[in-house]
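Encode chain A's predicted structure.
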Amino acid sequence: MLDEDIRTHLCRLGLTRDQADIYATLLSGGSCSTERLAITMGRQRRGHRNSVPFDGQALDRHLTHLRKLGLITIAETGSGDSEHVPVEPSIALECMAHTRTAEVHQAHQAAKQAYRGYRRSVAPQEKEDLVEVVKGSHVAERIWNFEEAVEFEVLRFDSPPYHTHATANPVEIEKLGNGVEYRVVYSKSAVQNADYYSINIQPCIAAGEQARVLPTVPVKLTIYDQRLAIVSMSFVESEVKDYLLMVHPSSLLSALAGLFETSWRAALPMHLNDRVPCGLQPLHRRILELLSTGITDETIAELLGISRRTLSRHVEAINTRAGSVTRFQMALYAARNGWI
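Encoded structure for chain A:
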Protein backbone atom coordinates (compact mmCIF):
# COMPACT_ATOMS: atom_id res chain seq x y z
CA MET A 1 0.00 0.00 0.00
CA LEU A 2 1.44 3.36 -1.04
CA ASP A 3 2.18 5.85 1.70
CA GLU A 4 -0.48 8.58 1.58
CA ASP A 5 2.20 11.21 2.16
CA ILE A 6 3.55 10.75 -1.40
CA ARG A 7 0.56 12.77 -2.59
CA THR A 8 1.58 15.70 -0.40
CA HIS A 9 5.13 15.60 -1.77
CA LEU A 10 3.87 15.51 -5.36
CA CYS A 11 1.63 18.50 -4.69
CA ARG A 12 4.65 20.43 -3.39
CA LEU A 13 6.32 19.82 -6.74
CA GLY A 14 3.39 21.38 -8.61
CA LEU A 15 0.81 18.66 -9.18
CA THR A 16 -2.80 19.27 -8.21
CA ARG A 17 -4.31 17.00 -5.61
CA ASP A 18 -6.29 15.12 -8.29
CA GLN A 19 -3.17 14.59 -10.40
CA ALA A 20 -1.22 13.36 -7.38
CA ASP A 21 -4.08 10.97 -6.52
CA ILE A 22 -4.10 9.56 -10.07
CA TYR A 23 -0.35 8.97 -10.16
CA ALA A 24 -0.35 7.45 -6.67
CA THR A 25 -3.26 5.17 -7.65
CA LEU A 26 -1.36 3.90 -10.68
CA LEU A 27 1.74 3.30 -8.54
CA SER A 28 -0.18 1.31 -5.96
CA GLY A 29 -2.61 -0.54 -8.25
CA GLY A 30 -0.64 -0.90 -11.45
CA SER A 31 -1.52 0.09 -15.00
CA CYS A 32 -5.18 0.28 -15.94
CA SER A 33 -7.55 1.68 -18.53
CA THR A 34 -9.21 5.08 -18.35
CA GLU A 35 -12.56 3.49 -17.53
CA ARG A 36 -11.21 1.38 -14.66
CA LEU A 37 -9.18 4.30 -13.35
CA ALA A 38 -12.31 6.49 -13.32
CA ILE A 39 -14.16 3.84 -11.30
CA THR A 40 -11.26 3.48 -8.85
CA MET A 41 -10.93 7.23 -8.41
CA GLY A 42 -14.68 7.56 -7.93
CA ARG A 43 -14.62 4.96 -5.19
CA GLN A 44 -11.77 6.78 -3.48
CA ARG A 45 -13.70 10.02 -3.71
CA ARG A 46 -16.82 8.49 -2.18
CA GLY A 47 -14.69 7.34 0.70
CA HIS A 48 -13.95 10.97 1.61
CA ARG A 49 -16.39 13.33 3.27
CA ASN A 50 -17.89 16.05 1.02
CA SER A 51 -16.49 14.31 -2.07
CA VAL A 52 -18.09 13.79 -5.48
CA PRO A 53 -17.66 11.08 -8.14
CA PHE A 54 -14.63 11.59 -10.34
CA ASP A 55 -15.47 13.57 -13.48
CA GLY A 56 -14.53 11.80 -16.73
CA GLN A 57 -13.55 14.94 -18.67
CA ALA A 58 -11.43 16.16 -15.76
CA LEU A 59 -9.73 12.76 -15.63
CA ASP A 60 -8.81 13.02 -19.32
CA ARG A 61 -7.30 16.47 -18.75
CA HIS A 62 -5.27 15.25 -15.77
CA LEU A 63 -4.02 12.19 -17.67
CA THR A 64 -2.95 14.38 -20.58
CA HIS A 65 -1.03 16.65 -18.20
CA LEU A 66 0.70 13.71 -16.50
CA ARG A 67 1.75 12.37 -19.91
CA LYS A 68 3.19 15.77 -20.87
CA LEU A 69 5.18 15.80 -17.64
CA GLY A 70 6.51 12.32 -18.40
CA LEU A 71 5.06 10.66 -15.32
CA ILE A 72 2.82 8.22 -17.20
CA THR A 73 2.58 6.73 -20.68
CA ILE A 74 0.05 4.70 -22.68
CA ALA A 75 0.72 1.04 -23.42
CA GLU A 76 -1.23 -1.32 -25.67
CA THR A 77 -2.48 -4.56 -24.12
CA GLY A 78 -2.67 -7.94 -25.85
CA SER A 79 -6.40 -7.45 -26.51
CA GLY A 80 -5.77 -4.18 -28.33
CA ASP A 81 -6.92 -1.96 -25.48
CA SER A 82 -4.74 0.80 -24.02
CA GLU A 83 -3.74 1.32 -20.41
CA HIS A 84 -2.06 4.11 -18.47
CA VAL A 85 1.31 3.05 -17.06
CA PRO A 86 3.43 4.95 -14.50
CA VAL A 87 6.92 5.88 -15.72
CA GLU A 88 10.16 5.97 -13.72
CA PRO A 89 9.88 9.57 -12.40
CA SER A 90 13.47 10.81 -11.98
CA ILE A 91 13.67 13.04 -15.06
CA ALA A 92 10.09 14.32 -14.76
CA LEU A 93 10.46 15.12 -11.06
CA GLU A 94 13.78 16.88 -11.63
CA CYS A 95 12.15 19.10 -14.26
CA MET A 96 9.25 19.80 -11.91
CA ALA A 97 11.68 20.67 -9.11
CA HIS A 98 13.55 23.10 -11.37
CA THR A 99 10.25 24.69 -12.37
CA ARG A 100 9.18 25.09 -8.75
CA THR A 101 12.59 26.56 -7.86
CA ALA A 102 12.21 29.13 -10.64
CA GLU A 103 8.71 29.97 -9.43
CA VAL A 104 9.92 30.39 -5.84
CA HIS A 105 12.73 32.66 -7.07
CA GLN A 106 10.21 34.76 -9.01
CA ALA A 107 7.98 34.96 -5.94
CA HIS A 108 11.01 35.98 -3.85
CA GLN A 109 11.86 38.78 -6.26
CA ALA A 110 8.22 39.90 -6.45
CA ALA A 111 8.00 40.07 -2.65
CA LYS A 112 11.21 42.11 -2.50
CA GLN A 113 9.90 44.51 -5.13
CA ALA A 114 6.60 44.84 -3.30
CA TYR A 115 8.41 45.63 -0.07
CA ARG A 116 10.56 48.23 -1.80
CA GLY A 117 7.37 49.81 -3.12
CA TYR A 118 5.99 49.86 0.40
CA ARG A 119 9.15 51.50 1.74
CA ARG A 120 9.05 54.12 -0.99
CA SER A 121 5.42 54.90 -0.21
CA VAL A 122 5.86 55.26 3.56
CA ALA A 123 9.36 56.74 3.63
CA PRO A 124 10.32 57.94 0.15
CA GLN A 125 13.23 59.96 1.48
CA GLU A 126 15.02 56.88 2.90
CA LYS A 127 17.50 54.78 0.93
CA GLU A 128 15.83 51.46 1.64
CA ASP A 129 18.31 49.51 -0.44
CA LEU A 130 21.21 50.59 1.78
CA VAL A 131 20.17 50.82 5.42
CA GLU A 132 17.12 49.71 7.36
CA VAL A 133 16.37 50.42 11.03
CA VAL A 134 14.83 47.73 13.26
CA LYS A 135 13.62 48.82 16.70
CA GLY A 136 12.34 47.48 19.97
CA SER A 137 11.03 43.97 20.50
CA HIS A 138 11.69 42.90 16.89
CA VAL A 139 15.47 43.17 17.23
CA ALA A 140 16.18 39.78 18.83
CA GLU A 141 13.75 38.02 16.49
CA ARG A 142 15.44 39.46 13.39
CA ILE A 143 18.88 38.49 14.67
CA TRP A 144 17.83 34.85 15.09
CA ASN A 145 16.22 34.91 11.62
CA PHE A 146 19.46 36.12 10.04
CA GLU A 147 21.46 33.48 11.91
CA GLU A 148 19.13 30.70 10.77
CA ALA A 149 19.41 31.77 7.12
CA VAL A 150 23.22 32.02 6.91
CA GLU A 151 24.82 29.67 4.37
CA PHE A 152 28.61 29.92 4.45
CA GLU A 153 30.15 32.65 6.62
CA VAL A 154 29.57 34.85 9.66
CA LEU A 155 31.94 37.66 10.71
CA ARG A 156 31.27 39.22 14.10
CA PHE A 157 32.47 41.82 16.59
CA ASP A 158 31.16 40.56 19.94
CA SER A 159 30.68 42.99 22.81
CA PRO A 160 28.03 43.56 25.49
CA PRO A 161 25.21 44.42 25.88
CA TYR A 162 23.33 41.67 24.05
CA HIS A 163 19.92 41.76 22.38
CA THR A 164 19.64 37.99 22.97
CA HIS A 165 20.33 38.35 26.72
CA ALA A 166 23.82 36.77 26.55
CA THR A 167 22.42 33.24 26.38
CA ALA A 168 23.76 30.18 24.58
CA ASN A 169 23.82 30.12 20.78
CA PRO A 170 22.66 26.67 19.62
CA VAL A 171 22.06 28.00 16.11
CA GLU A 172 25.76 28.83 15.69
CA ILE A 173 26.79 25.39 16.93
CA GLU A 174 24.39 23.78 14.47
CA LYS A 175 25.65 25.95 11.62
CA LEU A 176 29.28 25.16 12.49
CA GLY A 177 28.39 21.48 12.27
CA ASN A 178 26.97 22.12 8.79
CA GLY A 179 30.18 23.73 7.55
CA VAL A 180 29.42 27.43 8.07
CA GLU A 181 32.57 29.38 9.02
CA TYR A 182 32.42 31.72 12.01
CA ARG A 183 35.14 34.26 12.73
CA VAL A 184 34.52 36.30 15.88
CA VAL A 185 36.53 39.09 17.48
CA TYR A 186 35.54 39.44 21.15
CA SER A 187 36.03 42.50 23.28
CA LYS A 188 37.82 41.97 26.59
CA SER A 189 34.58 42.84 28.40
CA ALA A 190 32.85 39.88 26.71
CA VAL A 191 35.58 37.43 27.75
CA GLN A 192 35.62 38.76 31.31
CA ASN A 193 31.94 37.86 31.75
CA ALA A 194 32.29 34.42 33.36
CA ASP A 195 28.71 33.33 32.65
CA TYR A 196 28.81 34.43 29.01
CA TYR A 197 32.21 32.80 28.54
CA SER A 198 31.01 29.43 29.85
CA ILE A 199 27.58 29.24 28.17
CA ASN A 200 28.36 30.95 24.86
CA ILE A 201 32.00 31.60 23.99
CA GLN A 202 33.60 28.34 25.11
CA PRO A 203 30.99 25.99 23.53
CA CYS A 204 31.19 27.86 20.22
CA ILE A 205 34.99 27.67 20.15
CA ALA A 206 34.79 23.96 20.97
CA ALA A 207 32.37 23.53 18.03
CA GLY A 208 34.84 25.12 15.59
CA GLU A 209 34.46 28.88 15.88
CA GLN A 210 37.62 30.86 15.11
CA ALA A 211 37.90 33.38 17.94
CA ARG A 212 40.19 36.31 18.67
CA VAL A 213 40.15 39.13 21.20
CA LEU A 214 40.85 42.88 21.33
CA PRO A 215 40.69 45.24 24.31
CA THR A 216 37.68 46.85 22.62
CA VAL A 217 35.93 46.36 19.30
CA PRO A 218 35.25 49.37 17.06
CA VAL A 219 31.52 48.63 16.68
CA LYS A 220 29.01 45.89 17.46
CA LEU A 221 28.77 44.19 14.08
CA THR A 222 27.76 40.93 12.41
CA ILE A 223 28.13 40.26 8.68
CA TYR A 224 26.18 37.38 7.14
CA ASP A 225 27.48 35.80 3.91
CA GLN A 226 28.90 39.19 2.80
CA ARG A 227 25.36 40.18 1.79
CA LEU A 228 23.93 41.69 4.99
CA ALA A 229 25.42 43.40 8.04
CA ILE A 230 23.76 44.34 11.29
CA VAL A 231 25.19 47.11 13.44
CA SER A 232 23.90 46.94 17.00
CA MET A 233 23.75 49.35 19.88
CA SER A 234 26.75 50.14 22.05
CA PHE A 235 26.68 50.55 25.84
CA VAL A 236 26.02 54.28 25.51
CA GLU A 237 23.34 53.90 22.86
CA SER A 238 21.57 51.15 24.79
CA GLU A 239 20.50 53.68 27.37
CA VAL A 240 18.72 55.66 24.67
CA LYS A 241 17.15 53.20 22.23
CA ASP A 242 17.11 49.46 21.53
CA TYR A 243 17.76 49.22 17.80
CA LEU A 244 19.95 47.79 15.09
CA LEU A 245 20.86 48.91 11.59
CA MET A 246 20.61 46.51 8.66
CA VAL A 247 23.14 47.31 5.95
CA HIS A 248 22.47 45.81 2.52
CA PRO A 249 25.05 45.31 -0.30
CA SER A 250 26.72 48.66 -0.84
CA SER A 251 30.03 50.45 -0.40
CA LEU A 252 29.12 50.80 3.29
CA LEU A 253 28.86 47.01 3.64
CA SER A 254 32.23 46.62 1.90
CA ALA A 255 33.75 49.15 4.29
CA LEU A 256 32.40 47.25 7.32
CA ALA A 257 33.84 44.00 5.97
CA GLY A 258 37.21 45.72 5.50
CA LEU A 259 37.07 47.04 9.07
CA PHE A 260 36.49 43.51 10.34
CA GLU A 261 39.43 42.07 8.38
CA THR A 262 41.78 44.79 9.67
CA SER A 263 40.68 44.16 13.26
CA TRP A 264 40.92 40.39 12.80
CA ARG A 265 44.56 40.66 11.77
CA ALA A 266 45.34 42.82 14.80
CA ALA A 267 43.49 40.62 17.33
CA LEU A 268 45.03 37.90 19.49
CA PRO A 269 43.89 34.26 19.09
CA MET A 270 41.72 32.85 21.86
CA HIS A 271 42.38 29.17 21.18
CA LEU A 272 45.52 27.18 20.65
CA ASN A 273 46.47 25.41 17.46
CA ASP A 274 47.25 21.74 16.95
CA ARG A 275 50.98 22.14 17.51
CA VAL A 276 50.70 22.43 21.30
CA PRO A 277 52.85 19.65 22.85
CA CYS A 278 50.71 16.69 23.87
CA GLY A 279 52.36 16.71 27.30
CA LEU A 280 50.86 20.11 28.15
CA GLN A 281 48.01 19.69 30.61
CA PRO A 282 44.51 20.69 29.39
CA LEU A 283 44.28 23.23 32.21
CA HIS A 284 47.57 24.79 31.13
CA ARG A 285 46.24 25.05 27.58
CA ARG A 286 43.22 26.95 28.93
CA ILE A 287 45.44 29.24 31.00
CA LEU A 288 47.58 30.09 27.96
CA GLU A 289 44.43 30.76 25.96
CA LEU A 290 43.09 33.17 28.57
CA LEU A 291 46.45 34.83 29.21
CA SER A 292 46.60 35.69 25.51
CA THR A 293 43.34 37.65 25.79
CA GLY A 294 44.90 40.17 28.19
CA ILE A 295 42.31 39.78 30.96
CA THR A 296 43.34 39.94 34.61
CA ASP A 297 44.50 37.04 36.77
CA GLU A 298 41.42 37.47 38.95
CA THR A 299 39.16 37.04 35.93
CA ILE A 300 41.14 34.03 34.68
CA ALA A 301 40.87 32.34 38.08
CA GLU A 302 37.12 33.03 38.14
CA LEU A 303 36.63 31.63 34.64
CA LEU A 304 38.57 28.49 35.54
CA GLY A 305 36.91 28.09 38.94
CA ILE A 306 40.21 28.07 40.84
CA SER A 307 41.83 30.34 43.40
CA ARG A 308 44.32 33.04 42.53
CA ARG A 309 47.05 31.13 44.38
CA THR A 310 46.34 27.93 42.41
CA LEU A 311 46.47 29.93 39.18
CA SER A 312 49.91 31.29 40.16
CA ARG A 313 51.20 27.74 40.73
CA HIS A 314 50.01 26.66 37.29
CA VAL A 315 51.54 29.72 35.60
CA GLU A 316 54.82 28.87 37.32
CA ALA A 317 54.56 25.31 35.99
CA ILE A 318 54.08 26.64 32.46
CA ASN A 319 57.11 28.90 32.92
CA THR A 320 59.13 25.90 33.96
CA ARG A 321 57.97 23.94 30.94
CA ALA A 322 58.92 26.83 28.65
CA GLY A 323 62.21 27.48 30.46
CA SER A 324 61.15 31.09 30.99
CA VAL A 325 61.32 33.39 33.99
CA THR A 326 58.83 36.12 33.12
CA ARG A 327 55.48 36.03 31.41
CA PHE A 328 56.94 38.01 28.53
CA GLN A 329 59.53 35.29 27.95
CA MET A 330 56.81 32.64 28.26
CA ALA A 331 54.73 34.45 25.64
CA LEU A 332 57.72 34.62 23.27
CA TYR A 333 58.36 30.90 23.74
CA ALA A 334 54.69 30.06 23.21
CA ALA A 335 54.55 32.14 20.02
CA ARG A 336 57.82 30.80 18.59
CA ASN A 337 56.86 27.19 19.26
CA GLY A 338 53.36 27.46 17.87
CA TRP A 339 51.53 27.18 21.19
CA ILE A 340 49.37 30.21 20.37
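The radius of gyration is 31 Å.
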